[in-house]
Design goal:
11 strands; 336 residues
Length: 336
């Protein structure tokens, strides 16, 4: 697991029961793992503790040497740097899997790794938040997805043995676009300062997300992109669903609110810890795609600005936007 933060430690901890796992992450975090192991909660599983002896933890990229699979979970902005760090140490048969947000990380890895390196696209659908120095909580559900190729076979089998739902997919490109639509909520959640369940339960915040998704869908249509359908509702109808009054939304979209009370977006966690966010690979991707096809995406562009302002405020100091104020700000940006 290269970039073993919340998602990397969660996946690595569960996989440790069925295969040899090395976590590679920040020195302080890896020291905590070496001392205490991992504690994993949520996801419908019993409280799970992984003893330190079951994991190898390192902060050195050279620790990927000898790995059959290298699962990359760094933030999108660190992908090129990650490839440069692990490239010299990869075995010739190693398979690199991007379990990252955004659209371009697999192609960035392919371009920066040694020629011939096998890179697969993966997708993690659920939220994981750090609840302690070596404790992680899965707050939402869903199936992991990965390119349906022979190179993925052993990984999918290991994930399933570890109790994780894993689906090989032949349409990972459309899956990535569908996940991007979902991840546009990360910025809204981060600026709200609320748990995901509370934020999604409030119509004003959902209307903010609907504005983001409408711009994204327009850009997708212009680019000839058809996102995969990952849930019961076609993506084209999602903005309309998000705008429903709270009482109606609760009835027709109960699954959307079936979220652990502790779940928050990774972007919220980044702001709390004073780290750069992935807003450029989420809202920024929509802005760039729209511009390439002669369209504007002012709502997504304004959210990039607001998140950048929150980053500049420092750890835990970001402004918390009430739903009505954030919605008015975004409508104003769109000239509505």
């Amino acid at each position: 697991m290269f970039g073993a933060g919340s998602v990397g430690c969660h996946l690595g901890g569960l996989l440790a029961a069925v295969c040899e796992v090395t976590l590679i992450g920040r020195p302080q975090a890896m020291e905590a793992v070496r001392e205490r192991g991992l504690r994993l909660t949520g996801g419908g599983r019993a409280d799970t503790r992984i003893a330190p002896a079951l994991l190898r933890a390192s902060s050195e990229p050279s620790a990927v040497a000898g790995a059959d699979y290298v699962l990359v979970t760094v933030k999108s902005g660190a992908t090129r740097e990650a490839a440069a760090a692990i490239g010299p140490h990869l075995g010739t048969d190693a398979v690199v899997v991007s379990f990252q947000n955004g659209l371009r990380n697999p192609e960035v890895l392919r371009a920066a790794l040694p020629p011939g390196a096998v890179v697969l696209t993966g997708m993690v659908p659920y939220n994981v938040v750090r609840t302690g120095s070596a404790a992680f909580h899965q707050g939402t559900a869903g199936a992991l997805m990965v390119d349906d190729t022979p190179d993925a076979g052993a990984l999918v089998a290991a994930l399933r043995r570890a109790g994780l739902e894993a689906q090989p997919r032949a349409d990972m490109g459309p899956v990535q676009y569908a996940k991007l639509l979902m991840n546009l909520n990360n910025a809204v959640n981060a600026l709200s300062g609320l748990p995901l369940r509370d934020q999604l339960g409030a119509r004003a915040y959902r209307r903010c997300l609907a504005l983001c998704q409408e711009e994204a869908l327009a850009a997708f249509r212009a680019a000839g992109v058809v996102p995969a359908r990952l849930g019961p509702v076609p993506v084209s109808l999602t903005p309309r669903l998000l705008r429903l009054p709270d009482a109606v939304f609760r009835r027709v979209a109960a699954a959307s609110l079936r979220v652990d009370g502790r779940a928050r977006s990774s972007m919220w966690e980044d702001l709390e810890r004073g780290r750069p966010t992935e807003v450029g690979s989420l809202q920024g991707e929509v802005v760039a795609l729209a511009a390439r096809h002669g369209l504007a995406a002012p709502v997504n562009a304004r959210l990039v600005e607001l998140v950048r302002e929150a980053e500049a405020a420092g750890a835990g100091r970001a402004r918390r936007w009430p739903g009505a104020e954030l919605y008015a700000e975004l409508r104003g940006a769109a000239g509505r």
